[in-house]
Amino acid sequence: MQSPAVLVTSRRVQNVHTGLDLTVPQHQEVRGKMMSGHVEYQILVVTRLAAFKSAKHRPEDVVQFLVSRKYSDIEEFYQKLSSRYPAASLPPLPRKVLFVGECDIRERRAMFDEILRCVSKDAELAGSPELLEFLGTRSPGAADLSCRDFSVLDTDSQGGDDGDAFDFFQQQDRVEGEGLPTLDQKGQDAGKSSEEEEEEEALDPLGIMRGLLSAWSTAFPALLILPPVLP
Question: CA–CA separation, 115 vs 22, rounded Å?
């Protein structure tokens, strides 16, 4: 999940003991192709916890952000909490229905709001890695580890890219170098001795055969193995 934009707010955190407030104030219908679509429930997060802040925020800052989650996302999060924290007393999850109407959506939003308010009031759940993952935020330790890992990968990948680029240009130089003898051969042909030119002129005074030979070699260079025997 992509990390949301976190903004400083003048709001006060209601749950002082956890430093986190969670509410579901509204929902949004996302239309897809044809008749498809889904509903996303917008979760408002207000907190002073360092896990949700960036380096630019001060310790005393209260920040807020919105995240949108589908029913399936919230259901998965709910099941994780119920499995790992069986002692936690959570409100029931909204029932699944095949066709969701407007009344069902409003009911789900209200029940999700109740569930997340309960989570934000529980000190253990409010600081759980499951909640951080659900809200799109990683714990500081995991973030540091990721930075170290990506730093190593970036260094390695950059080195590999530079090496590949260097080899590529070396290969280009080799190809160009291999092409130079062909140009030299043309230079040698251009620098024929006057005796050879006089001999060719004597055998072909009108230059007909030389013209045909030149045209043939240009059009079919691969087929020209031996020059034709002049009469």
Answer: 9
Query: How far is 162 from 165, CA to CA, in rounded Å?
Result: 5
| Own/partner pairs, 178-184, CB within 8 angstroms, 24+ separation | none
Task: For residue range 103-161, list pLDDT tens digits in order.
Answer: 999 999 999 999 999 999 999 999 999 999 999 875 443 333 233 332 222 223 333 33
DSSP-assigned states of every residue in 40-98: EEEEEEEE--GGG--TTS-TT--EEEEEEEEHHHHHHHHHHHHHH-TTS--PPPPPP-S
| CA pair distance 217, 227, nearest whole angstrom | 9
pLDDT in tens, 163-215: 333 332 333 344 444 444 444 444 444 455 555 555 555 555 555 555 655 65
Residue 60 φ/ψ, nearest 5 degrees = -85, -5
The residue behind tokens 């009469």 is: 231
Task: State the burial class of residue 115 (Cβ atoms within 10 Å of its Cβ: 0-12, 13-18, 19+).
Answer: buried
Q: Kindly report whether the global pTM for this prediction surpasses the value 0.70.
A: no
